[in-house]
Amino acid sequence: MRGVSALLAQLLVALGVGSGVAGAQTYPSRTITFVVPFPPGGSTSLVGRVIADRMSQLLGQSIIVDNRGGAGGTVGAKAVAKSEPDGYTLMVGYTGTLAIAPSLYRSAGYDPRKDFVPIGMIGSAPSSLVVHPSFPAKTVAEAIAYAKANPGKVNFGSAGIGTVGHITGEYFARAAGIRIVHIPYKGSGPAVSDLLGGHIPMSFSPIATTAGNVKAGLLRGLAVTSVRRNPLLPDVPTMIEAGVTGFDAVLAYGLVAPAGTPRFVIDKLNAALQTALASDEVKKQLELDGTEITPSTPEEYADFIDKDEKKWSELVKASGVEPE
Fold first, then answer.
1. What percentage of the chain has pLDDT greater than the value 70?
2. Which positions make up the signal peptide (predicted)?
3. In angstroms, rounded to a whole number, what is the distance separating the alpha carbons of residues 223 and 248?
């Protein structure tokens, strides 16, 4: 009986391995969806579409980008977390949904460590502090002085509650000792559109969505939120250079799948993602968006998400924003 049981166990293992190999060979066999948890026009959408186009070519299947905005990205994130873990519904991960929301919302509806499987990192980029040309401040120091002279009367826009722009703005206000009023939008695109129209004087928005308008003179760039200047706006100083000590708040992008997605699917997607990021075409497009490419293994991205969530939970606390 022991011999029969051992043989049966071996057969089951062999069948399992065989099904995995077969699955790896046939995946993907239909269209893949990349969920971007924000409306079109924002930086996450821009990055997601660049990656989707190249990975589609590499995988031999169509990849559509599905923009599902709402609640600072948590609507789309929850939808992906509850999706079938078959490799056909993925999310373009972003600092706001994977690192900020768990601290900002008492119940975000998902756990970034338990409900998602990391596929790999894409890159990182700073936010930018930009103002309408009619705003009197031409430097960060002047903006701080103006806000101190007009407490609670200066508004700033962001992609929504719980986004990097929101928390970065609150963090800036706390660091500078000023009171500014947050105006949430349903994405970076709408926020920048209202800023261009003069409906708000200031915004913390991803550099990808503001650089073109700054170069065209339609907006004034006061600072970027990284510790180094960004090639997209080389003449715009960092917050640290502008006098805000130790200021560092960059956003990161990556690709994640629902928990339970088979390992062979994750490996195949990671290989395609890394190949895409190594292509000259993708490098050029992401650099034009101000994104620094940082490819990784699934394990490295998991470690990054863990550390990033801890970092931003501290920034949420430092910003003074109360959990919702």
1. 92
2. 1-24
3. 12
